[in-house]
């Protein structure tokens, strides 16, 4: 067959998000409404009778991730891109107890520190992929592994991608070799509301809980356009058209608003000492209520400019925030709208043509969105692409420069580090090399914008998780153990 | 094989852009792919669509047009050996996708030349990234044989297919097994029966009789494959399947076999080298995406190279109708994983031409070669490099595509000119 099994998961898969880049530097629950809502729903403080008040556990499948033990590591003599536009020549990064302790040119290595001479090499934050289906569409791509699209009804906001993630997907280790330290795994795009996404540390683990990024906000995948209307139109059910898509979202938001109001009213009355019964729990509406309360970030698959504009109007109609448009093949056509509405765009460097809504892709998309002042980033949506996001950014950067945009190498490194971190609500923790952040660091053999550059070493929370020269620091999944490909990159 | 090039092409040239002019590309690092190796500060002189001189002491004739490479690289055009260029405009729209026929009764006789569209929008978007030649493949539909492929160029001219019936494509991987009824055994049995039909053609079909598995037209189309005049490109990944394919080639000499896919080819590299069977492989395939490709690795190209297997690179993992233009990136990654630069560059230029039997016309810069010449602003295998000039058949082509027009239209989002009037 000519069609290689790539990205098709994505064609029939999709994503959605909610926190804007600009305010993604804190958990979305930090805004005032969110704080109030979260406390009401999850908190234990309260007045008399609190123990009788029904609360919703917002974190019933908590992260059990623990960083591997790490000592003190000093990387020296490197060219550093800090992920937020800074470049340091002959610089050092000091990592202590899993956190970045210092970055600069005149840092002394503490006694006992492991010192790595990175002369001639480059050091950057760990790469973050905001759009992955690793684990939910794992290798091998057998039918039993098709776990990313719950194509049973157009609104499946009740499903959570983490419940499909197979931690033994060999793709995780391949992505690690490409410098990926954090990834966001989404349900597919066959539904209007595909379900919740999950943000993972890219670490080997028996369980998905052992990979979950501690305290990362949940996300909701939504999808525009052809995928949902094709899936359900082919079944002669709604949505069968773009207008059916919009009607489907709006009907759901109306129900979600009522659901949210019923819970908030219940909590207020109960806290006031009234004898009231709680509403009936609904998993689907729990997720949508989380969006309306600002706790869950909407990551939305949309290709066309006009469809993004419709979604922006809907976002205002129901007073929620779209965090990121994913794919956004026509993002360059509405870059001003994205900027003015605090919506990020996660795009490919140069892919399209596979369906009508992807017919107008340009190589300058990422750079033009960035130039307009919107928050732009690369994404993979692919088990191979995730291994080379540095090269994808290199292409987007050079194409942007060729039409005259003045963008520096260090500025563009935000496109695979800090910008996805902001759009996932984890920028306080990772996405840049700044004191206090997690020690997620990549040492590249050469300038990461070169085709020939490889990740030599990858640190997650200060622990050496991948070393290209040391098989003992290269994870091998259960699946690959004893197979022909074991240990190969 | 029908060679449509040469006199026919020259005859048709009157309807295309004018060509009869000397063009000298100067002041560049010339990659010749010949014994001349790399020529620093070199010149390539073209005349009437053919390279006539290469070196750093080339005399430029009076009246020649000169193109200054400005210290960039001058190379043969990229030859993509496994594409669907010209067959698909929108993959998911059946009405704009002629790559495969899922419900036809025909197989080998299906010919991509009947569908190829030189005005397909991705011809230009691939050409401006340095791709000048390609093999265009049908996809398998409901049959094990996909049909016949062609060789062409990215000029966009009416005569841009230079060789039709250039090869026959068949799928003997797990997906081929599915079309053959559900097992690999059935697929190989079908292939044996098909060859038997072709060998018995036309006698077996006299008087309106049918073959065992092939229709009359399909059997006729397979005859040249059984006689070794047209290569059989076979999609297989698993090492065991590749060994089976080698045995098939031995048992059916003089059939010319080309392996496409080849995820586990490195595991049987010495057998492939000994049988002199070339492999078309995507250097980026490194996931065990199926049980056929458990051995897929980024080291495969280097291991095949080391064993002496003839290897050309593909963009199998990128869409072949859209992103064949990424071939230099794929080759660059092979370099990052151990393949010498010269070998990797040949694997996307001269080697594919040689595999298709046209290595004396395409893929090198030497007198007599077709003047497919690309000028780059840096190392062509670097992702940040790009062509500045692309010549196909000695004619300079426009560095413009539908995609560049869209970029121009939306480049200044704040301009108040309505977008629809920007053109």
From TrEMBL, chain B:
UniProtKB keywords: Signal
InterPro entries in UniProt: Amidohydro-rel, Metal-dep_hydrolase_composite, Metal_Hydrolase, Metallo-dep_Hydrolase
Pfam families per record: Amidohydro_1 (PF01979)
Span of the signal peptide: 1-20
Domain Amidohydrolase-related, chain residue ranges per copy: 278-393
PANTHER family (UniProt xref): ALPHA-D-RIBOSE 1-METHYLPHOSPHONATE 5-TRIPHOSPHATE DIPHOSPHATASE
Protein name per UniProt: Amidohydrolase family protein
Protein source organism: Hyphobacterium vulgare
